[in-house]
Specification:
Distance between the termini: 48 Å
Radius of gyration: 22 Å
CATH architecture of the largest domain: 3-Layer(aba) Sandwich
Shape: globular
CATH class of the largest domain: Alpha Beta
Number of strands: 9
Number of helices: 11
Largest sheet: 3 strands, parallel
Strand order of the largest sheet: 4-3-7
Order of helices and strands: EEHHHEHEHEEEHHEEHHHH
Helix content: 25-40%
CATH topology of the largest domain: Alkaline Phosphatase, subunit A
CATH superfamily of the largest domain: Alkaline Phosphatase, subunit A
């Protein structure tokens, strides 16, 4: 068992006759009893794994009950932390690397460990980004600078990347990378916490970070040695009214960096500050009564008529609706056919 991010941890069970096809112990709702893992098929492996996980769950509770922190909490009349909710069981599989599949040298900034784990499984280098925490305290500027540095090498020193098994960062590719993935988790957290103001302010902060990333990349592209493309999307919605993941198609935006700069105006990009800024702090659960937006004039540059980034607006876009498995194909086709 290893600590991950916020309240999360990773639990690894190794041995023969195991399966990832079991349910979890998390009831997914407050004030409900802890569940028992159940096999999701009739195989011996699934039944065996469910039994192992249920036994593990009992042992975790025994250890937690006797922990000094919990004993102190009990003496103070406070609730104790006596369970670990186990969910999302799976088995790591061998898959072709991202580089082999797409012919690109990839890197990512992903302090959220489940995302970083997916990246490592695909052979994607995990970049160091000081102050990036994967929660509300994260420094978005650090993420933008880390990705930009990796994508502008060799004009920059080699970025530092995570080395699995050594728990530290070492110099990455000297020649740099040509695909960067920047993950932001805090907006999802605000949805789970039903913190409407925080989610709005957080999205405004993401806008600011996108501007910082664009400025850094544009400085490199202006040298004539690089050409960049920006893609903004998500993996799911987390509505504040619901407080959990939902199933709406997510918006997807793709453009050449030069077109982005042309749309917002290079003079506006020049004044973007590259100073670090924290995500706004708003208490979870606070509801908003009125939000005043001043977006200015929204115009699309070219491609289609969409000028806003949300589920409803994106549905009118020229790409229509497509499964996530086609996303990289869409991106590479756009790069090849439009600007080769």
């Amino acid at each position: 068992m290893k600590y991950a991010t916020e309240h999360k941890c990773g639990v690894v069970v190794k041995g023969p006759k195991l399966s990832g096809n079991i349910s979890g112990t998390d009831p997914l709702k407050d004030n409900c009893l802890l569940l028992k893992a159940q096999p999701l098929d009739d195989s011996f492996e699934a039944k065996n794994t469910a039994e192992v996980v249920n036994e593990l769950s009992k042992e975790i509770t025994k250890i937690l009950k006797s922990h000094p922190i919990n004993k102190k909490r009990e003496e103070e009349g406070k609730n104790i932390a006596n369970v670990v909710l186990l969910r999302g069981c799976g088995i790591r599989i061998e898959v072709p690397s991202f580089g082999k599949n797409h012919g690109l040298a990839p890197c990512m900034v992903a302090p959220t460990k489940i995302i970083a784990g997916l990246g490592l499984s695909l052979g994607i280098d995990i970049l160091e980004a000081p102050g990036a925490t994967g929660d509300y305290r994260t420094l978005l500027t650090s993420k933008a600078k880390s990705i930009a540095s990796a994508l502008t090498a060799p004009s920059q020193p080699p970025p530092r990347v995570f080395v699995p098994g050594e728990e530290e960062f070492k110099p990455g590719r000297v020649e740099g990378y040509d695909f960067g993935f920047l993950h932001i988790k805090a907006i999802d957290d605000a949805g789970h916490d039903k913190a409407t103001i925080l989610k709005v302010r957080g999205l405004e902060a993401v806008d600011q970070a996108v501007g910082q990333l664009a400025k850094l990349l544009w400085q490199a592209e202006a040298s004539g040695s690089f050409q960049y493309y920006l893609c903004v999307t998500g993996d799911h919605s987390t509505p504040v009214e619901y407080g959990d993941h939902s199933f709406e198609p997510v918006p997807f935006a793709l453009c050449r960096l030069g077109d982005f700069v042309g749309a917002i105006g290079e003079e506006n990009l020049d004044v973007v500050s590259l100073e670090d800024f924290p995500l706004p702090s708003v208490a979870a659960g606070v509801q908003i009564t009125e939000v005043k937006f001043s977006p200015g004039t929204l115009v699309s540059y070219f491609g289609d008529s969409v000028s806003e980034f949300n589920e409803i607006a994106a549905a009118r876009g020229c790409l229509g609706r497509f499964p996530g498995s086609e996303m990289m194909g869409v991106i590479k086709k756009y790069m090849k056919t439009k600007y080769e």
